[in-house]
């Protein structure tokens, strides 16, 4: 029976990964930061099956302790300040967690159990101002946010420890992956939550930033399977995990509203663009410049050929089903909220 240690276990990816590893018979350990109120987040339903360790990515001693307690055979580093917009407000904090935190974890592994296999959650945001379409493992990086820059450090330090110390350390360059468990501050969940609230009459409209930004969207459940597969190979390597499809934020909005039986008709352009309910003429979507990024990433689309060929990985949840799952989930949550309020 293998031991696995997951940082960021209460997040979207951490919860799906914990479920996968438990199904495979692992002893699962999860790192949590101490808070005044314990918050198990997305793993609340399986918290009794997880061994929680209080530690922090910015505290090397606590990570060494976590390695000693868990005796992990595999470490999945999913902990991050992962909201891109926030990285401009907290660039130092983002760097301490997303960049130096990776080094802290690698040093803990090297100190306690060098045979442990390490997975680093890299990101398509490292490509930023894309130098090649589609983006693959050999595409030059050009990050456009403090988040992307910090993640790029984490990516390269992982490769460096692999080449310097012979650690089994690899990075998954994951393109945008969403799910019903995504935080509401992220644009996809913000959209599906708003669709549910608008449909039930508890929200008037939705405000977004750059409607033309293009992203390669997959489902988190598919992507955590790729993480596990990376650590089962004979040799460590880095892989792009993506769908090789790209859609605008506008298309995501249209698909989400369609799931609620609402067809969106667009008028205007730029900051004056609006989306109306085609049946009623009511304005449901507006552009708000405050949501624009200081430096925009216009297009992301990944080539997963290497992962498909070497790992045997294939996504199972296509884009329409991803959006359908998210809208249905938020519909149910909003209905429950209304029911409670009416009691």
TrEMBL record:
Domain NAD(P)-binding: 5-326
An annotated Gene Ontology molecular function: GDP-mannose 4,6-dehydratase activity
EC number(s) reported in the record: 4.2.1.47
Catalytic activity: GDP-alpha-D-mannose = GDP-4-dehydro-alpha-D-rhamnose + H2O
Keywords attached to this entry: Lyase, NADP
Source superkingdom: Bacteria
Cofactor(s) the record lists: NADP(+)
Positions with a binding annotation for NADP(+): 205
Family: Belongs to the NAD(P)-dependent epimerase/dehydratase family. GDP-mannose 4,6-dehydratase subfamily.
Function field: Catalyzes the conversion of GDP-D-mannose to GDP-4-dehydro-6-deoxy-D-mannose.
NCBIfam families: gmd
Protein name in the entry: GDP-mannose 4,6-dehydratase
Organism per entry: Maccoyibacter intestinihominis
Gene behind the chain: gmd
């Amino acid at each position: 029976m293998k031991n696995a240690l997951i940082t960021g276990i209460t997040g979207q990816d951490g919860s799906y990964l914990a479920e996968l590893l438990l199904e495979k018979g692992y002893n699962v350990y999860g790192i949590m930061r101490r808070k005044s109120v314990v918050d198990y987040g997305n793993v609340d339903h399986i918290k009794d099956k997880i061994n929680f360790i209080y530690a922090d990515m910015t505290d090397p001693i606590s990570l060494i302790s976590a390695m000693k307690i868990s005796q992990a055979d595999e470490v999945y580093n999913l902990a991050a300040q992962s909201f891109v917009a926030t990285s401009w407000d907290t660039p130092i904090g983002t760097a301490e967690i997303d960049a130096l935190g990776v080094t802290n974890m690698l040093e803990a592994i090297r100190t306690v159990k060098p045979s442990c296999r390490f997975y680093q959650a890299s990101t398509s945001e490292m490509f930023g101002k894309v130098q090649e379409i589609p983006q693959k493992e050999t595409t030059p990086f050009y990050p456009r946010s403090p988040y992307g820059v910090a993640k790029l450090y984490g990516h390269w330090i992982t490769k460096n420890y692999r080449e310097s110390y012979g650690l089994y350390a690899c990075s998954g360059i994951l393109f945008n992956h969403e799910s019903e468990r995504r935080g509401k501050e992220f644009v996809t969940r913000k959209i599906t939550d708003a669709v549910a609230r608008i449909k039930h009459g508890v929200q008037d409209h939705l405000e977004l930033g750059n409607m033309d930004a293009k992203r390669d969207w997959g489902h988190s459940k598919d992507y955590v399977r790729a993480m596990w597969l990376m650590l089962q190979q004979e040799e460590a390597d880095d892989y792009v995990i993506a769908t090789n499809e790209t859609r605008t934020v506008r298309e995501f909005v249209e698909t989400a509203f369609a799931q609620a039986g609402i067809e969106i008709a667009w008028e205007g352009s730029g900051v004056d663009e609006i989306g109306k309910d085609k049946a009623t003429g009511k304005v449901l979507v507006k552009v708000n410049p405050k949501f624009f990024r200081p430096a925009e990433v216009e297009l992301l689309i990944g080539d997963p050929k290497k992962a498909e060929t070497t790992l045997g990985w294939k996504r199972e949840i296509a884009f329409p089903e991803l959006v359908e799952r998210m809208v249905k989930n938020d519909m149910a949550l909003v209905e429950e909220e209304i029911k409670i309020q009416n009691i």
